[in-house]
User: Fold this.
Amino acid sequence: MKKMISTPNEQGFSRRRFLKNSLGAGALLGFPTIIPATALGKNGAVAPSERVNIGVLACGGRSAAAGAYKDYAKSQIVAVCDPVLERRLQKVQAWGVSDHYSDFRDVLARSDVDAVHISTADHWHVLMSLMAARAGKDVYCEKPLGLSIEQNLAARDIVNKYNRVFQYGTQQRSSDPCRMGIELVLNGHIGDVKEIYVWAPQGYAGGSATPVLPVPNTFDYDLWLGPAPKAPFCHDRCLNMEFDGKAIWFVYDYAIGFLGGWGAHPLDQLQWWADEEGLDIPVEYKATGTIPTEGLHNTVTHWDMESSYANGLKMRFMDTVTAKAKGAAGEIPFFNEIGEKADNCTHFIGENGWIRVTRGVFQCSDEKIRRMAKNPGPRRLTESRNHFGNFVDSVLSRKQPVANLDSAIRSDIISHMADLSIRTGKKLGWDPVKEVVTGSKQARKMMHRDMRKPWTL
Assistant:
């Protein structure tokens, strides 16, 4: 296929072509995609009908893991896009992809793209996922989910209305140790769960909106901002790719910081367990936290949230620095030298012991419990050892993958409830029937985030 590169001047054409193609395919939305016979590529040993064509939407740092599709026998990457030319050219070279675009709508318009991998900034996640679903594409979306609770609830249409397969980028669900640890809890090896503690790495203050810089010719800044408010182009907002200073994760216009950006992982492990227990999410929340007042970054850096479920079960969610301080002070039961080493954690405390799940590891209060991990009992979770392969297999089988959308919505709302409680200074409630925040009119209004025109859910 001839290489196609869209530039800012070509975006009007791209949008018109996308709308034409997506409307023309409207009668087919919701039905399994037929993978074209031209999908041969390097995995020619696999029948074309068993191979999935992937388009990678955004080529920044979080896209690196998408290279796994290239090495999975049932998938191949056929297109990449990014509004920054240099970033997408890096992936073209690394993955051997010939087709690259500035505008993601060019990828959605392609009839040979079966699924997309979304690794954009957080403020694009739900909007882009919905647009992909409307175009008949299945979706792998990096965590966290929505920029607001409203976006999270709207995301349901991806599966319910458009019948798309959706995989959430919480890859710990495809880790044997994480799954085994939660199965031990589900099968009662620590008795009834009495308390739960969750922690994740803290956010970062800093960054500067000055000096204002000219926009490079190879950077489509308007598309990079998308639904976010207009803002001056500067190094720390747009060009700083270092972990500790990457403003795209710590500016409130684009994210809620590591409350969701890192908290998504341990909260997802919590929700995996809660889903199996028939629990929704906590109904009461009281959180305190620190929000920088100087610099470019303005998301929560440190936090401590106490919450409770409808059945009275208590769950406490903190950043790692706060958790270690509380643990050292004796406020977290069974917080020992093992907990001190865990930068992210889901810590279940039962009547007969404890189980702690962190990335690639589970730990138990008793060696006898640990020995039961390979045969924990009848309550088992979906087994996956390859998060990307699980997504590809689900696209082919039309079954939802291990990190499903409903669970993603629930866990992501927990992080937003923490953020809203901190920002309003109020104790908040969650009405699981009406799906609204209670306890503060201000917080309820903050369930919504405005989008810059012409973007809309």
